[in-house]
Amino acid sequence: SRQAYDPFTSYGLSKLANALTATELQRRFQAHAGDPQAWGQDSAVAVHPGLVETHLATNFFKNQLSLPLQGVVEAVPASAKLISGLVDAVGPLVMKSPANSARVVAFAALAPAQQVAGRYIADSRVAAASPAVSSPRLAKELWEVAEQLTGEVTHESLRAASQPSRS
């Protein structure tokens, strides 16, 4: 996004980062399984609640549809109402209600850890994530960049988990 901002690309990369973070966190949890002093009893899950019908989403799509038609919108002000009406009509057909998207999150939180730990959840089931999500190297690299950017370093009880196995 430093050269040019594209909302779809940035959104997709943020979702990839979420899934990679869950992958790395779950790997660290597993490295400490059985150690009650560490986080070995927890699990990490990446959840995609779906495209949710909110003001943020509908306004985003209205703006995105208006951009390529900017000349038409300026020349024919009524066309903006047409675009808005189209998004309002189609939105509920392709987007989930906030309550339905919350069900996906609840499923991830309440499902047995052995079913969801370290996995990607969409539509209340384990789903295939991008192949990049299964890259331990990429997940660890993202974790390290996040530590550098935030100035927050992993607690020492989890540092051993971040070291590659010598066996």
TrEMBL record:
For this UniProt record, the keywords arranged alphabetically read as follows: Oxidoreductase
Oxidoreductase is among the record's keywords: yes
Q: Which InterPro entries match?
A: NAD(P)-bd_dom_sf
Instruction: Work out whether the entry's keyword set contains Cell inner membrane.
Output: no
Q: What is this protein called?
A: Short-chain dehydrogenase
A single GO molecular function term of this UniProt record:
oxidoreductase activity
